[in-house]
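Table S2 (text version). Query chain:
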Amino acid sequence: MIVTGDIYKILYEKVRAFGINDVYDSWKPITSELKEEAIVIVTSTPIEPDTYWEKSFVHVNICVPDYLECVNKRKLTEIERLANQWISCGIVDEYDNNWYQISKISLGTERDEALRCSYVNLKLLFEILNVN
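Corresponding C-alpha cell output:
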C-alpha cells in the first residue's frame, strides 16, 4: 500500500528532472526570502478509495525567486512550460509492488510576497491501484 510519505518520496525522485536541488514539503517549509529556485511538494490525505483506485491530490510548487526585485517572468514561463511537458502524458509506474498513475489537474502561476518569489503551481491527481 502506498501512503502519503511514499507519494512524497516518489514525487521527490520524479521532480529531480527539473534540476532544482532544494526540495521542501509541508513539514519542512521555506521560512525566509527565497534566494534560489526550490520545489515544495504538499501531499494531502487520500480520498476514500473507490472500487479500483485510491486517490490523493498533490501540489507541486516550483518556486522562482525575484530577479532584481522583480518577478522573473521569463524563468517562470520557462518552468511552467517544462512542468506542462513533464506531465502532459501522465505518469504510470510501480512502487513497492503497487501500481500508480499521476495526472495533471491544473497548472498555473502564483505569487508569494513574503518569500519574494513567484511559483508554478502544479496540482496533480495521484491514483493508486486498489486491487490485489
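Notes on Table S2: Strands lie at 22-25, 38-43, 53-65, 91-95, 98-112, 117-129. The chain has a mean pLDDT of 89.
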